[in-house]
Amino acid sequence: GEEWLARAEGKGTRKRATAHAVITRGTGVFKINGESDMYAWWPLIYNRFDVCQPFKLTGTAGVYDVFVDVKGGGEGGQAGATRLAVARALFEANPACHDNLQKGFCLLEDTRQKMSKMPGKAGARKSFPWTKR
Q1: Does the model's pTM come out above 0.90?
Q2: CB 35: neighbour CB atoms within 10 A?
Q3: Cα 89 from chain centroid?
Q4: Distance between CA 113 and CA 37 in Å, rounded?
Q5: How far apart, in whole angstroms, are the C-alpha atoms of residue 66 and residue 27?
Q6: I want to staple 17 with a disulfide (CB 3.0 to 4.6 A). Which of 55, 81, 110, 124 is the partner?
Q7: For residues 18 and 71, is the Cβ–Cβ distance under 8 A?
Q8: Pick from 83, 99, 92: which is nearest to 4 by CA?
Q9: pLDDT at 89
């Protein structure tokens, strides 16, 4: 008995980006921040692959419409955040798909952050050029 909810939502974060995804039963429409579509938002194919992975794993491609609000970070971070948000929304819609999402590591939050710059250094690790005198 696989029971899918008609509407579910999830939140996701990655690097500096946060995403809030709402999935509703539909025909596979994908909207980002209200108007933009996936191809305009993520020109790189692997970012789009990332975002669609949860649907592939659960076999729900083209079953749900997705509306994502995403802000902060860059393209890759936003794609990762959206992927986690979508996966969490699908998990909320049907907790039985947990193992499928787990197999593709879709429910794992990537908590790695940029290391911050330290005083007395040029970057996080890079030091200023060494001078003898």
Answers
A1: no
A2: 7
A3: 11
A4: 28
A5: 10
A6: 81
A7: yes
A8: 92
A9: 92
Residue whose C-alpha is closest to residue 66's, from 55, 80, 77, 81: 55
From first CA to last CA, the distance across the chain in angstroms is 76
Which residue is associated with the tokens 């939140």?
11
C-alpha to C-alpha distance for 54 and 97, rounded to whole angstroms: 10
The answer to whether residue 12 scores a pLDDT higher than 70 is yes
- CA quadruple 41, 82, 95, 4: dihedral, nearest 10: -20
- How many CB atoms are located within 10 Å of the residue 80 CB? 22
Confidence band for 111, pLDDT divided at 50, 70 and 90: very high
Which tokens sit at 118? 């330290």
